[in-house]
Amino acid sequence: DIQMTQSPSSVSAFVGDRVTITCRASQGISSWLAWYQQKPGKAPKLLIYAASSLQSGVPSRFSGSGSGTDFTLTISSLQPEDFATYYCQQANSFPLTFGGGTKVDIK
Amino acid sequence: EVQLVESGGGLVQPGGSLRLSCAASGFTFSSYAMSWVRQAPGKGLEWVSSISGSTGSTYYADSVKGRFTISRDNSKNTLYLQMNSLRAEDTAVYYCAKDLEIGTIGWFDPWGQGTLVTVSS
């Protein structure tokens, strides 16, 4: 199974800050990576797929990069509505696996 | 508008069974892979199972293989998850999710609102 390791597990930031979350796969997954945002009590929402493709309707302040084993999700200017937990997920092979999550909260 | 509505969750005793349903609308259901993802209370996301849109091929996490069965009824636009031999560790909110694109499995968009399954005596 492919293990997905996210860091940090939590980050405190101000509105307007640039936030970067990293995700590392235990083996190469090409660009088969997605990022999701989840707010408390809500279902996850797809932000980025294929490592860097922005899902329709997602603000352009979100961006993804990387390939192989190392990936990043960047929020260029954190907005109040961005405080949430973020998960990476690999779709290279079964079983599909998620990272442990990164909680972004207000500093 | 794509809509996914799960139902069938509830309280069940260890060793019991439950069938979850996910009613889909707003897209050509038979063309898309569908999946179940769960989230234990206060924990992260765990993929459970997927079924392809074209061939109906099925895939399972090791933690549920042999106990859970995913299926779909394309005439009713409904996805199912039959859960047998339930354990306390199966307690979670279960989400159904549509795949983003025809022919792929693994980009989950959108997700349903979730249904809570509690396994306890």
Task: Summarize the helix and strand pattern of chain B as letters.
Answer: EEEEEEEEEEE
Anisotropy-based shape of chain A: globular
Largest interface, counted by CB within 8 Å of the partner chain's CB: A-B, 24 and 24 residues
Question: Into which percentage range does the β-strand content of chain B fall?
Answer: over 45%
Radius of gyration of chain A: 13 Å
Number of strands of chain B: 11
Q: What value does the average pLDDT of chain A take?
A: 97
Largest β sheet strand count, sense and barrel closure of chain A: 7 strands, mixed
Structural class, from helix and strand content of chain A?
A: mainly beta
Number of strands of chain A: 11
- End-to-end C-alpha gap of chain B: 40 Å
Account of the 3D structure:
The complex is a heterodimer of chains A (107) and B (121). Chain A has 107 residues and is mostly beta strands. In chain A, 0% of the residues lie in helices and 50% in strands. Chain A has strands at residues 4-7, 10-13, 19-25, 33-38, 45-49, 53-54, 62-67, 70-75, 84-90, 97-98, 102-106. The mean pLDDT of chain A is 97. With 121 residues, chain B is an all-beta fold. Chain B is built from no helices and eleven strands. In chain B, the strands form two sheets. In chain B, strands 2, 4, 5, 6, 9, 10 and 11 form a seven-stranded mixed sheet that branches. Chain B has a four-stranded antiparallel sheet with strand order 1-3-8-7, with no helix packed on it. In chain B, strand 7 and strand 8 (78-83) form a beta hairpin.
